[in-house]
Design a protein that fits this description.
By secondary structure, the protein is mainly β. Helices cover about 0% and strands about 50% of the residues. The chain is built from no helices and eleven strands. The strands form two sheets. Strands 2, 4, 5, 6, 9, 10 and 11 form a seven-stranded mixed β-sheet that branches. A four-stranded antiparallel β-sheet has the order 1-3-8-7, with no helix packed on it. A hairpin with a 4-residue loop joins strand 7 and strand 8. The chain starts with a strand and ends with a strand.
């Protein structure tokens, strides 16, 4: 089992920045990649960014490319998501998820473990 706990969500004005963190515990060595997803009310859960634990290779959704940076700290088993130039449409619950796959996937069903989510609200 891998336990994931997100933190860092909150309310921010449009154009502002926010950093989210995901702390992993348990059998973390079994997880190869970690992704961030988000889900707005009434919408599907969408991929935001992902990172591979081994070499830090990153992947981003087109909607956030250039505005978000995902990074990892292997020693602390944490993954951060830095979001800049936030827009009201970025408002959602943000989830981190861990996968056994060696390549980052944008498909939520490829992830075996999920955190409880953290709310990000961007006001206009």
């Amino acid at each position: 089992q891998v336990q994931l706990v997100e933190s860092g969500g909150g309310l921010v004005q449009a154009g502002g920045s926010l950093s989210l963190s995901c702390a992993a515990s348990g059998r973390t060595f079994s997880s190869k990649t970690l992704g961030w997803f988000r889900q707005a009310p009434g919408k599907e859960r969408d991929f935001v960014a992902g990172i591979r634990w081994s070499d830090g290779r990153t992947y981003y959704a087109e909607s956030v490319k250039g505005r978000c940076t995902i990074s990892r700290d292997n020693a602390k088993n944490t993954v951060a998501l830095r979001m800049n130039s936030l827009k009201p449409e970025d408002t959602a619950v943000y989830y981190c998820a861990a996968s056994f796959r060696v390549e980052v996937s944008a498909t939520s069903t490829m992830y075996a473990y999920w955190g409880q989510g953290t709310q990000v609200t961007v006001s206009s």
